[in-house]
Specification:
- With 933 residues, the chain is of the alpha+beta class.
- The protein is built from 31 helices and 29 strands.
- The strands form 10 sheets. Strands 4-12-11-8 form a 4-stranded mixed sheet, with no helix packed on it. A 4-stranded mixed sheet has the order 14-22-21-18. Strands 3-6-7 form a 3-stranded antiparallel sheet, with no helix packed on it.
- The chain is globular.
Length: 933
């Protein structure tokens, strides 16, 4: 062990070594330290109590004294440890962290120390992956497509402002790498701002550019400085509360729980800042906040681990979070004056990444915008999380993502009441892959293929014509193709015959019936009686017919919804008013509207700000206020009710004050000549609304592909992002451009190559269930399956209020059902949740098909086999016709041979009929019949 040199002597040596040439000589050493050393010697992980991030840490040294003696490499402990055998426990870097440093790397460090260990002023090192790319002056790489800086522009307001710039390299194969530390950054006018590492700090007012260079490529960031000498006091709401949230103090598992933690309670994720302020400053006066000695305040000593803390050490002394809290307490620990600028949103960049290989690290940057037009870098005040830490991990405080195993993750950043995220894909570095040349029928295919390319997934081939016609019939009109329809389609030589078939099916009334059923579920059309509130059968039938008439007439869907939400009058005379009979509680009504028409669940925000989405309590109660004035009264007919708008307000749960109407995620409107419902209906269905068209497009997509781009379709939130955002955006644009005609959207989907893919998988897409690289094998939904069984067995159904032979998809009342429909998961329409429709197979379904009367009894009653035999058809012909009518294909030779063998041992016609009926029964019980594929 060497004798520690005095800190003052070392500091003097380092402070004297700030010349540009010396700083340049440090760059290669910096690469070595950041990729091989800092990971074990950084804030929160100081092995041997040695911190290598800063100049001061290096000089202070650790348990063995100073790490270096500037100007004397031979006496530096660091160099000694670099030369130890790799199996020595004191060797640096340790064996588990990779191979020893090369001779060249050791030489560079030795020279650096002998030169006085130059270190640029203010520079803080950061751990980098061993897979980091080379420096900016390395030879150009032909595979490097572009470099991109975030943010695109920087605005520095007040002396306290700063912005960290990160730089990303994008390769031609879509891979992304962080090159922030490897890039050359040059300020056009260095008198306006200081560039410390990659962080910009204001010096004087003006505008300039930050030029970024990397391996022959360059980009620029515009920099504007305003009020450079104006101080900005620490704000409780804008600075202190975000520190508490980022540190995890107000989560449900800590002080944000219903009962708090260790006698200290905070509101969950800071939904009640005034209450939190009171609890911090007035409870335990002089202890949690010590105005006389700020550093002794309990909220600081516990957070830094100076005194025992159940939550452990949250941040070190002199960190940005610590300094924020200390300054606030020194300034008197005051609450903010009224009218301070409030955050209006955040952005997280980069918004999407493809990380090729393990341990590829990329930092995220978070920028908040404020109501006064300013913005701030709030990366250090944000909390971070990942949806899949098996694929991508993220430092919850620093926001540095690191790749692990192949997969996809959504990285979430939370600041104030806002939550946004970044979509990240991880693929193996050595995966052999070449983008296949696959035909694209329309925009859908291009956007699906672009996503699959990032995932290194090859889509399956096209399904056969036999598979397509069966799939299209079931999905579009809810029935099976007849044998003549199948034969005509297969015989056609028209290259566009699939498009022609889709157009024919879209023009049929059965298409309308399918979508009336779909929306009747979401609008909860059913008979209902609870106290004085009711929907009689006459009212439910009128409501159903109202919906059917508009869908049949191809009314723009936004207009249909606008009429629904603003409806008033009698439940008989204006059936749309029945929507407000099913739920009379304004809070529940607003939740249903948000879930059905915007695809978002806002229920969590009733009691606290949503922990995984953007919704606040203010959003929740403001939206509910639109429905607070819906009133009901009896009509002359006791079965009818009159719906109208009167008085009424919604009170905030915490403040107990009336809340003015506020569009969800939007402004507060000035309501003058319209009712509140008319105002919200107009807003919701306008072309400017970001939620409505997107939600409908996702619902339509999920019907035909089996999975929504956002799944579940009614759980749209920041932490449940779309699997293909670009695809959902484009479908939304098309839907609006089509004037909300979802028939045209259905045509786009069903004529796309993506919809027409085979269900058979290849080695690249066998595990894919979210990116539409192959057709999903889907159980046929209850109503359609019953109709298909009725169709092929020629046995008509009878349902309440409908004539004999009506289809199950035509049932108006959600409470009209039978054992088959209930067993196979038909929605009862009791809630607005899409989860009411059960598509998962289960044992009860299998037993019912095997033993119930739906199959065997219908086979006997329909007399299909008996009729074939009377027409003198041979067993071979009967079996072939049964296959064609149920499965949409002829039996294979082995299938036909095995089945005919069962008929050879019988001599009586009755026995032949029974054997063939057994074949029919087996087909109706087969997975191939019950599933669409």
């Amino acid at each position: 062990m060497i004798r520690p040199i005095p800190i003052a002597r070392a500091a003097a040596a380092l402070l004297a070594s700030t010349l540009v040439s010396q700083a340049a000589s440090f760059e290669k050493v910096q690469d070595i330290l950041e990729t091989r050393c800092v990971e074990c010697h950084q804030t929160g992980k100081t092995k041997g109590n040695l911190l290598m991030e800063t100049r001061e840490g290096f000089l202070k040294g650790g348990d063995s004294g100073a790490a270096i003696e500037p100007g004397n490499a031979a006496k530096s402990e660091l160099l000694k440890r670099l030369h130890l055998p790799k199996d020595d426990e004191d060797a640096m870097p340790p064996a588990k962290s990779g191979p020893p440093l090369t001779e060249e790397e050791q030489t560079l460090i030795r020279q650096w120390v002998n030169e006085g260990a130059p270190w640029p002023d203010g520079l803080t090192l950061a751990s980098r992956s061993k897979n980091a790319l080379p420096r900016w002056d390395a030879p150009s790489d032909p595979q490097l497509a572009s470099i991109e800086a975030f943010p695109k522009s920087v605005s520095l307001e007040t002396a306290a402002d700063f912005h960290r710039v990160i730089v990303i390299a994008r390769f031609k194969d879509s891979a992304t790498h962080d090159i922030t530390r490897q890039s050359k950054l040059t300020l056009g006018d260095p008198t306006l701002a200081t560039l410390t590492g990659t962080t910009l700090l204001p010096k004087k007012d003006g505008t300039t550019t930050l030029k970024i260079e990397y391996r022959g490529l360059s980009t620029e960031v515009e920099v504007a400085v305003k009020d450079a000498t104006k101080p900005r006091p620490v704000s409780f709401q804008l600075d202190v509360m975000p520190v508490l949230t980022a540190a995890g103090c107000n989560t449900g598992s800590c002080h944000g729980s219903a009962r708090g933690q260790d006698g200290f309670h905070l509101s969950l994720y800071g939904f009640d800042p005034k209450g939190d302020f009171q609890r911090l400053t007035t409870e335990m006066a002089g202890r949690r906040i010590n105005l006389a000695m700020p550093e002794d305040s309990l909220m600081l000593t516990k957070a830094t681990g100076a005194v025992p803390h159940t939550g452990g050490k949250l941040f070190p002394k002199d960190s940005a979070s610590y300094n924020t809290l200390v300054e606030w307490i020194r300034n008197g620990a005051e609450y903010d004056a009224d009218g301070i600028p409030q955050p209006t949103g955040i952005s997280v960049e980069p918004s999407e990444m493809v990380l090729k290989g393990g341990d590829i690290r990329v930092p995220l940057t978070v920028r908040a915008t404020y109501s006064d037009g300013t913005d701030r870098d709030v990366s250090t005040l944000s909390g971070f999380s990942t949806s899949n830490d098996n694929s991508v991990t993220i430092d919850k405080h620093q926001g540095v993502a690191a790749s692990k195993n192949r997969g996809e993750a959504f990285l979430l950043a939370r600041f104030h009441t806002f939550t946004e995220g970044s979509q990240t894909i991880v693929v193996p570095a050595d995966l052999p892959y070449t983008r296949p040349e696959v035909a694209e029928n329309n925009y859908i295919d291009k956007l699906v293929h672009d996503k699959l390319d990032k995932l290194r997934i090859v889509p399956s081939g096209l399904c056969s014509d036999e598979e397509f016609i069966r799939r299209a019939f079931i999905d579009i009109v809810g029935e099976l193709p007849s044998v003549p329809e199948r034969e005509a389609f297969l015989a056609s030589n028209d290259a566009k015959k699939r498009e022609v078939l889709v157009d024919q099916l879209l023009s049929r009334k059965e298409f309308t019936e399918m979508w009336v059923m779909k929306w009747a579920e979401l609008l909860q059309i059913r008979t209902f009686q609870k106290g004085g509130s009711q929907v009689s059968y006459k009212a439910a039938l009128g409501y159903y017919n109202w919906l059917r008439e508009r869908i049949a007439a191809n009314m723009p869907f936004n207009e249909l919804v606008r009429q629904l939400l603003s409806a008033e009058g009698g439940t008989f005379t204006n059936p749309a008013t029945n929507y407000f009979q099913l739920e009379e509680e304004p809070l529940k009504t607003s939740e249903n509207v948000a879930q059905v028409f915007m695809g978002t669940r806002i229920q969590c925000a009733q009691c606290h700000n949503h922990p995984f989405d953007r919704w606040t309590m203010e959003d929740y109660y403001g939206f509910a206020a639109f429905f607070a004035q819906v009133k009901r009264k009896p009509a002359e007919d006791p079965r009818e009710r009159i719906v109208f708008d009167g008085g009424g307000e919604v009170q905030h749960l915490v403040t107990k004050q009336n809340v003015a109407p506020k569009f969800l995620g939007g402004p507060r409107p000035e309501i003058k000549n319209e009712t509140r419902r008319e105002e919200v209906a107009k807003w919701l269905t306008s072309t400017d609304n970001p939620w409505f068209a997107r939600n409908v497009a996702n619902i339509v997509w999920a019907h035909f592909l089996g999975t929504g781009i956002v799944e579940p379709v009614d759980d749209v939130r920041v932490s449940n992002p779309p699997s293909n955002p670009a695809l959902l955006d484009e479908l939304t644009k098309k839907f609006v451009a089509y004037n909300y005609d979802f028939r045209k959207l259905v045509r786009d989907i069903c004529t796309s190559r993506t919809y027409q893919l085979a269900s058979a998988t290849n080695e690249t897409n066998v595990t894919d269930d979210r990116n539409f690289s192959h057709a999903a094998i889907r159980r046929v939904r209850a109503e359609v399956l019953l109709d298909c069984i009725s169709q092929v067995t020629n046995t008509p159904n009878k349902f309440k209020g409908l004539p004999l032979g009506a289809r199950a998809v035509q049932i108006a009342d959600g409470n009209t059902t039978n054992y088959f429909l209930t067993t196979f998961g038909r929605a009862s329409r009791a809630t607005a949740c899409s989860c009411e429709v059960k598509m998962e197979p289960n044992l009860s379904q299998a037993l019912h098909l095997l033993n119930g009367d739906t199959t065997q009894q219908r086979i006997r009653n329909g007399k299909i086999v008996e009729t074939y035999l009377k027409d003198k058809k041979s067993p071979s012909e009967v079996i072939t016709n049964l296959y064609l009518s149920t499965l949409g294909r002829a039996p294979t030779d082995p299938e036909l041979t095995n089945l005919l063998a069962a008929t050879k041992d019988v001599t009586k016609p009755e026995e032949t009929r029974e054997v063939l009926e057994d074949v029919f029964w087996a087909l109706l019980n087969s997975k191939e019949f019950i599933f669409n594929h």
